[in-house]
Amino acid sequence: MNKYELALVVNAKIEDEERTAVVERAKEYITRAGGNITEVEDWGKKRLAYEIQKMREGFYFFIHFEAEAEAPAAIEENVRIMDNVLRFLVVRSDEEQSDQKEGE
C-alpha cells in the first residue's frame, strides 16, 4: 500500500457541523475506496492566496491515508463534486523512499 495525503480547502462561511460533515464525507470516500486513514490534521482558517468563488478564507484539512494505487482517482472523482470544497489535492507521500536514500 502507498501513503497519500488529501488536502481539502473547505468553505469558511458554513457552520462547524457542516464543515465536520464535509470532512467526514471525504474520510468515508477514502475508506470506501479501500484506504486506511492514519491521521487528520486541522489547520484551521487561513487566508487564501487568491479569491476562490468570491471567498478570501478557507478551512484547511489534511487527511493522511494508505491505499492502493487506484484509490486516489476514485477519491478525487467523489471529492470533485462535493459541496463546500473550494479546492482539493491528493498527493503521494514518499516518506519511505526518502528514508531509503538516506540509508544508502
- Helix count, DSSP H or I runs of 4 or more residues: 3
| Rg over C-alpha atoms, rounded to the nearest angstrom | 15 Å
Tell me the helix content: 25-40%
Tell me the span between the first and last alpha carbons: 23 Å
Strand order of the largest sheet: 2-3-1-4
Q: What is the beta-strand fraction?
A: over 45%
Q: Please state the oligomeric state of the protein chains shown.
A: single chain
Summed over residues and divided by their number, the pLDDT gives a mean of 90
Q: What is the strand tally?
A: 4
Instruction: Indicate the low-confidence ranges by residue numbers.
Output: none
- What is the element string, with H for helices and E for strands? EHEEHEH
Using the alpha-carbon principal axes, give the shape. Answer: globular
| Biggest β-sheet description | 4 strands, antiparallel
Name the structural class.
alpha+beta
